[in-house]
Amino acid sequence: MNAITIDGPAASGKSTVGYQVAQQLNFLFFDTGVMYRAVAWAILEEEIDSSDSDAVGSVAEELSIEISSPTSEQADGRQATVRIGGQDITWAIHSRRVDRIVSVVAANSRVRQELSRQQRSIGMTHGSGEGGKAGVVMVGRDIGTVVLPEAPLKIYMLAPVEERARRRLREISLRGKEADFAQILTDLRRRDEIDSQRAVAPLRPAEDAYQIQTLGSSVQQIVDQILVLAVSRLGVEAVPDSETASSADSASGADQA
Ligand code: DC
User: Fold this and answer.
1) Nearest CA to ligand 1 atom 3
2) Contact (CB, 8 A) for 195 and 251
3) Which CATH class is domain 3-240?
4) pTM greater than the 0.85 cutoff
């Protein structure tokens, strides 16, 4: 199976690194966090209380989340386009109000059961090369431990919370928005705590994961480190940068689940 799992805390660089690894291997890139974010967005839209676990669980079970590769008109720095009922919610799911409740939503056992099932199905299809790609890079919190425990290469990315807050601040400013460092730091600490203390599928490295400390390394250095591991563990070949397409395909919860 050609599957690489990348887990780790919020803002540890998983998506940036995972996306580039996927491009160089001609693998599907699938950031599973967008699905938890889409459920959180939907419950805000429906004005459901995030602590109402029955109502939140039902929303997750009924929601059809569509994830697709960005078209050329949608190329605005996104790694995937996320839609619900035809509405493009790609950027809305990264808003502060979604950030504030998403960890609570992701701790809901029915939400996890439903989304893990859909994610596993996408991972198995693409990991076996049946989805038109050579494999899959899946990013999240529990991919190596719960969603695809049989993946032959598992990565766990780490960075101190202050460094992750600096990166998040930089990302937000690059989007032309204002943010407060202290507020980001507080939010990340809170999310780390909920993600790692929850009863179901808590954030933790799989026993056989390679742990990569990213402080002091460039994105390219970490990508290269993972590519070396992929070549030896999966027996795949990396495509040189110049030959990779301008954007890697992304998972579609609708048409590939
Ligand atoms: O990676 P992210 O910040 O977009 O994730 C959003 C939330 O979803 C975060 O609280 C962790 C949770 N999540 C999870 O519990 N399991 C995953 N596989 C992916 C994300």
Assistant:
1) 10
2) no
3) alpha beta
4) yes
